[in-house]
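Why does residue order matter? Because the sequence determines the fold. Keep that principle in mind as you read this record.
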Amino acid sequence: MDRQEFGYGRGFFYLRAFLYVVLFAFAILFLALGTVTPPAWIAIVAALLVLYLLVVGLSPLLTKHVVLRSRLILRQGWYFRAVLPLEDIERIGPWDGEPRYGLKISTIRGILYVVGSGRNLVSARLREPRRFHQVLFLRAREVVFDVDDREAFLAAVEGRQTSAEALPAHKVLILPSARP
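Structure:
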């Protein structure tokens, strides 16, 4: 019971992936039929667009948020991963505001949104603002995200916060054996 995974809303990502497929198909058709473009260039552009579609459009469908013994790992595809130690979280609970979908940051309010659905939103307020490199190293003090089952998620986090002390997050050095 050290690791629990929680899914999050996927509707926004299905829509975004579909729109990317349509947009990229039009772009490739325009290059192929509307311009005099060498086939090798069209293949390169198509490969880059497919790679972008995989990372940004489809990878959010493959990841989940994880609650470990001493930390919370928030994921949104392969492009966002934030590890929040539970000791750095001041308060965690339901959030009932109007979210910004996707991966967005409000620098004025200091809120990072990692949202795929407007339902079951959770807010994790940090003790100190921290930088997130996925949003150009801007600072946020609060992270808003969604989960499929908010009550089970909050119960899991609360159980971890009230359980025994967290293990240290540093490596233990192992010395080599003594030579004869």
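Helices lie at 11-34, 39-58, 150-162.
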